[in-house]
Design a protein that fits this description.
Elements (H helix, E strand, L loop, with lengths): L1 E2 L1 E4 L2 E9 L14 H29 L2 H14 L2 H14 L3 H17 L4 H22 L13 E5 L4 H5 L6 E6 L7 H9 L3 E3 L13 E5 L4 E4 L3 H22 L6 E2 L5 E8 L5 H6 L5 E5 L13 H14 L4 E5 L26 H7 L1 H14 L4 E6 L5 H20 L9 E6 L2 H5 L1 H4 L5 E4 L1 H9 L17 H16 L3 E4 L9 H8 L3 E4 L4 H8 L4 H5 L2 H5 L4 H11 L5
Helix pairs in contact: 1-2, 1-5, 2-5, 3-4, 4-5, 10-12, 12-13
Length: about 575
């Protein structure tokens, strides 16, 4: 048995197709005719551009607009003449072969993105690697396994799969895939979830253990892999596969239903989104609103700040698409691991504790006011709520509200309409805010708990540090006590409390959060129907009776064991 990271749910059973990358030996060569070399480079570049366009059109038609955007990014790279001018100069100045110059220049860009902490930015390095590999293959006329034209159903095993590999897969003949490297946020994992293909990533030395036509069984939820399993294991997983199909059918029957627990408690299941392209998934999975719109993606992958009008059109579209359902929009949360090159942000020893989010906005009021104007104007077109990130003290909250008040006055003076009763809330992701949540609750209409950072700051663990990942744990008693404190303090002041961190969609945590009194759960759209299924099968009163004992436990391990023992999971 092997263990990897479950990246896309489902069971896969079948023969292996081993996809090994062709060993491309790129060596530095001295050349005499640099013009010929440059012509070869651009022939390969144009051929790659045509291939990427076909992939874009195929992905748009078969998967969706969001996934196709990956190839828009690839197209931008292959058309970026700043990169190719540098490659040309290197060929001419050093009299070297095109593939070596291509590697030297693109390696520099890959290193820049690889050094960033943010997973989204790290994926830009993957994009450059994918495009570089494609151009190199076209330069050297190397053929790869064609995953779009498979002869029989197979499980693909590879070191890694590029977005191009995943998008071009023959879905009817790909039972699932396993990769040696990668994480849940890798493009291949995201595409697998969109295609509903089971996948396990980060399976370590799997390539050294398998051969073509070996038999494999794996679970894309748990990340468990069996190589050449016994008949008993195959039979067990055939049963699980049937259960999985039946469960998916049961989830589809929940579309259009309210989220009500066994004891009659009505809860709200909302979606986290980053762009308007995510709205298809929100509607398809029947979200009851948007609990977090991460507006920083409007500011990224560009060379200047978005204008008020540009932001207004985006916020307006989201509000109108949701047709009166709540849309919680978080103001700019940049800094930390999310950098904007055009803003010239300071380099800091510890950016997660530095100049970021609301701190940056209160310092750069022109940026903040532009966004607030766009948000307020868009509030006339739907049920928009404004949320401030990373509030750590009352002074920040009051100053942010004051800036919002001044923007409202400006709009009134200009006779520009907006929702005068727009709700204003804050994220609680800093322990200081959790501790004083009783007084902060008097100043806002709602709280939203950001568990990704709350866990990180409460446990003093960098969530990107794999060596310390065992300490980054939502079941840590301090984290659970913080969550309960925030919910209780919010309710005492009559405000609703939501959660928009990853924990909100965790099947083990959902019953506990419901028992604690959480009003709104916001998560990835694909998790919504599963969360609804869980909540419709639990009794929050019975869970609430367990909380005192659970919150008195000393370790995360004991808490999790208690949850698994006491709460009857139906899934």
């Amino acid at each position: 048995m092997f263990k990897g990271i479950g990246a896309s749910p489902g069971i896969a059973i079948g023969k292996i197709l081993l996809k090994k990358e062709s060993k491309i030996e790129i060596v530095k060569k001295h050349i005499e005719d640099s013009i010929k070399e440059i012509h070869g480079l651009h022939y390969a570049r144009v051929k790659s551009k045509d291939e990427i366009l076909k992939l874009y059109e195929h992905t748009l038609e078969t998967i969706g607009e969001k996934e196709a955007q990956i190839f828009e990014a690839h197209s931008m790279i292959v058309e970026d003449m700043e990169i190719f001018n540098q490659i040309e100069s290197k060929i001419k100045d050093e009299k070297i072969n095109a593939e070596w110059a291509l590697k030297e220049i693109t390696d520099q860009f890959i290193a820049i993105f690889d050094d960033m902490d943010d997973e989204y930015m790290k994926e830009r390095a993957s994009d450059i690697k994918d495009v570089t590999a494609r151009i190199t293959r076209n330069l050297l006329e190397i053929q790869e396994i064609d995953l779009s034209n498979l002869k029989e159903p197979v499980i693909i095993v590879a070191e890694d799969l590029t977005p191009s590999d995943t998008a071009s897969m023959d879905k009817k003949n790909v039972l699932g895939f396993v990769t040696a490297i990668g994480g849940k946020t890798a493009h291949s994992a995201i595409m697998a979830r969109s295609l509903e293909i089971p996948a396990v990533v980060g399976a370590g030395d799997i390539l050294s253990k398998v051969n073509n036509n070996d038999y494999m069984v794996f679970d894309g939820d748990e990340g468990i892999i069996y190589l050449n399993p016994t008949q008993d294991i195959i039979d067990r997983y055939v049963g699980k596969l049937e259960e999985h199909k039946n469960f998916k059918y049961a989830l589809q029957k929940l579309i259009g239903k309210e989220t009500i627990t066994v004891d009659g408690k009505k809860l709200e299941l909302a979606a986290n989104i980053g762009t308007v392209d995510d709205l298809d998934g929100v509607l398809r999975n029947d979200a009851q609103g948007i609990g977090l719109f991460r507006t920083e993606f409007l500011y990224m992958d560009r060379t200047s700040l978005p204008s008020e009008e540009e932001q207004f059109e985006v916020y307006k579209k989201v509000a109108q698409t949701m047709k009166g359902k709540p849309v919680v929009i978080r103001t700019l949360d940049i800094g930390g691991d999310k950098d904007l090159t055009y803003m010239d942000l300071p380099k800091e020893m510890n950016p997660f504790l530095g100049y970021r989010a609301i701190r940056l906005c209160l310092d750069q009021l022109d940026v903040f006011k532009t966004q607030l104007r766009a948000l307020l104007r868009a509030s006339s077109y739907g049920n928009i709520k404004i949320m401030f990130p990373m509030i750590s003290c009352m002074e920040e909250l009051r100053e942010a509200k004051s800036v919002l008040g001044s923007v409202k006055s400006d709009l009134r003076n200009e006779n520009i309409g907006f929702d005068e009763n727009i709700e204003v809330g804050m994220m609680i992701e800093v322990p200081a805010a959790a501790i004083i949540s009783d007084i902060l609750a008097k100043e806002v209409d709602f709280f939203s708990i950001g568990t990704n950072d709350l866990i990180q700051y409460t446990t003093a663990v960098d969530r990107g540090n794999q060596k310390l990942s065992y300490l980054y744990n939502q079941f840590h008693p301090a984290v659970l006590r913080c969550i309960q404190l925030i919910i209780d303090n919010g309710h005492k002041e009559g405000i609703w409390v939501g959660m928009c961190g990853e924990v909100a969609g965790d099947p083990e945590m959902i019953p506990i959060l419901a028992g604690m009194g959480l009003d709104e759960f916001s998560m990835s759209p694909i998790s919504i129907l599963k969360a609804r299924y869980i909540l419709k099968n639990i009794d929050t009163k019975k869970i609430r009776d367990l909380l005192d004992e659970m919150l008195s436990m000393p370790t995360a391990k004991e808490v999790q064991a208690y949850i698994n023992k006491k709460i009857p999971f139906i899934l």
